[in-house]
């Protein structure tokens, strides 16, 4: 069914409809242009944001899900000449060509940063599940030296996605966000809730089965019904295609099943795609250089695959196409990456502050079998003095009661309330896995079935139906939240898994699932977040979920990368996936450090896996959330030997020492629309070589992180972006000029880290949990060489009193010319735990002091009582 739908879309003749501007009218909030066919709405949303909507008749039965925040509309003016209409705000201008209807966009300096491609606006009548809809497509001209990032979390390994085809659907390990960011000073959100093809490749290679290869193997895999055995054997498929020109070509492979097991494609005997995991998204893509003429293709996958390969010549354009739409709808944001994301969040919702304990270490495994099992391991963390704040109970605690019955099996967990109480006494918190599917044969499932609260022919709750969502929350609250005082919630498989909206009606049969195919996770997290704010208002919400969509940041949700493998290539691909997710404006992201699917029992003694794990964990230390997980694995550090435990402790201590910095950066996300995990486009958009770095990023304002993602490394080449005042090696204090690649010591104990000159980094004490010690004495490291600022943020950490102003902000400012550090007057209202009088130990970093994880030698110790004070460097 799925393939027929795709082919139907691709084979419909595509043509541009008439776009001559007949007239226009200015309204308070928009300009409406009447074209020879249809209407074009241009709506300035902020000073640097405009929304473009086109249809034969603008109307929508689909709710507004993304742009929900009310912001003051900007002033704008309209001017007209013989050939153009211009709509201008203080920060951008939309230019309409009256003859063609083509739009272009200028920044405040008058420079065109984006243009629609002529004759590329397509709006073609179609249908889905027997109901009318449209195919909407828009092309944009890109510049030859442009770099483009975004579209969410993908497993294809690409960071720069200019020209790359991607099929935007939600599946395990893949999160589709129809948002891109350009190095040329703009962002673009394609506003559609269904499947979207990014840079669609329409030419098809016909493949024929050519037999099987290798032996059939049986593997244990996770499914929505738990662990199951599955027999797999490779299938081989062959075909050929001919291209007219030499050049770069985009290739998209669709395996023809809901999930893939392997991606392997060769062209003329050369392998161009090769990646495998127990579960993979059904599509992947790459870019290849081809010569004119005939080319042979071999696809090796699972024997039951029905693969199709699509291709197109890469040109300087970006295209979005949605096969199920009721209007063509996109939003353009002008400005640098921070300005774009700030406007996006102003319009779609602020990201609330995560609880401070969520930024410590999160310990997870699949799974603790019993209450005693969980508590025994929790106690061991404290006995062994390994820091930890949050322990996670994964699935199947429901036991005999059925999948996600929202009930603990008392044979396994006899007293969950006592379990949570003991964890709290150890200053730990519990996260519990709660799914969006419910076993239909369970007591709870039968209730949902009788009320028709399922998506038809599935076990997924129909969250699009408000009554079903409310009933889900009622049971969630009464059966899990209120009885046990559980602290955090793991919403697993919120895609929903297996792309189960396709071909089904939702919202009690009112809407074809394809219209809302990518937004199920938004509905789930909304239900849980709003329910928690209502029923547990004094506790800060923390949701971990496997999928996301634009706007989801407002529901206190973090995502992780799903059921990934553990090899080096998988590690590399999580990094590019996370950076392309973060650039879409959704700030909280993590992964299963060490991989979900692991090598089995050998992992406990395999030194090669230990090396991979430690590199994974170093990256986790400099990710928004530090977390370990693993399938059929006792993931506790001590089970892997003394070396792994000692090295892990080092990075646990590092994370906890950095909590004042990380929590302050979290506040920057909430109050200033900031971004913690920052692709280099965010800070070095004009540095071409920086834009080419796939495995480097900024962690907050100070840290350049260059994680080791290859085996047996002692030295690692790090590109230091162009920065006039240069960089400091965190481990040695040595200063380097920017704009060069440096060989950096990177033994198994060391993740390469550089600090931007002018940075100010607060470091706390080592702790076993985030609230163990008040931050009365902080080490303040100052990296001189340029002016710098930092705001130290503190509050109660676990509630929403910050929304009423109960927080402390202490500004630090380094003046390079005057060689003076000013600690400004404290801002904010008093709160429980506010440190009125404290000590700041100032460290001027150089090669002899303030290096590595341990405390530096204090140069100046300052007593601070909330009033401004200036410190002269001597």
TrEMBL record:
<feature type="domain" description="Glycoside hydrolase family 31 N-terminal">
    <location>
        <begin position="40"/>
        <end position="198"/>
    </location>
</feature>
<feature type="domain" description="Glycoside hydrolase family 31 TIM barrel">
    <location>
        <begin position="352"/>
        <end position="665"/>
    </location>
</feature>
<dbReference type="Pfam" id="PF01055">
    <property type="entry name" value="Glyco_hydro_31_2nd"/>
</dbReference>
<keyword id="KW-0378">Hydrolase</keyword>
<dbReference type="GO" id="GO:0030246">
    <property type="term" value="F:carbohydrate binding"/>
</dbReference>
<keyword id="KW-0326">Glycosidase</keyword>
<dbReference type="InterPro" id="IPR000322">
    <property type="entry name" value="Glyco_hydro_31_TIM"/>
</dbReference>
<feature type="domain" description="Glycosyl hydrolase family 31 C-terminal">
    <location>
        <begin position="675"/>
        <end position="761"/>
    </location>
</feature>
<protein>
    <submittedName>
        <fullName>DUF5110 domain-containing protein</fullName>
    </submittedName>
</protein>
<feature type="domain" description="DUF5110">
    <location>
        <begin position="777"/>
        <end position="846"/>
    </location>
</feature>
<dbReference type="InterPro" id="IPR025887">
    <property type="entry name" value="Glyco_hydro_31_N_dom"/>
</dbReference>
<dbReference type="InterPro" id="IPR013780">
    <property type="entry name" value="Glyco_hydro_b"/>
</dbReference>
<dbReference type="InterPro" id="IPR048395">
    <property type="entry name" value="Glyco_hydro_31_C"/>
</dbReference>
<comment type="similarity">
    <text>Belongs to the glycosyl hydrolase 31 family.</text>
</comment>
<dbReference type="Pfam" id="PF17137">
    <property type="entry name" value="DUF5110"/>
</dbReference>
<dbReference type="GO" id="GO:0004553">
    <property type="term" value="F:hydrolase activity, hydrolyzing O-glycosyl compounds"/>
</dbReference>
<dbReference type="GO" id="GO:0005975">
    <property type="term" value="P:carbohydrate metabolic process"/>
</dbReference>
<dbReference type="Pfam" id="PF13802">
    <property type="entry name" value="Gal_mutarotas_2"/>
</dbReference>
<dbReference type="InterPro" id="IPR033403">
    <property type="entry name" value="DUF5110"/>
</dbReference>
<dbReference type="InterPro" id="IPR051816">
    <property type="entry name" value="Glycosyl_Hydrolase_31"/>
</dbReference>
<dbReference type="InterPro" id="IPR017853">
    <property type="entry name" value="GH"/>
</dbReference>
<dbReference type="InterPro" id="IPR011013">
    <property type="entry name" value="Gal_mutarotase_sf_dom"/>
</dbReference>
<dbReference type="Pfam" id="PF21365">
    <property type="entry name" value="Glyco_hydro_31_3rd"/>
</dbReference>
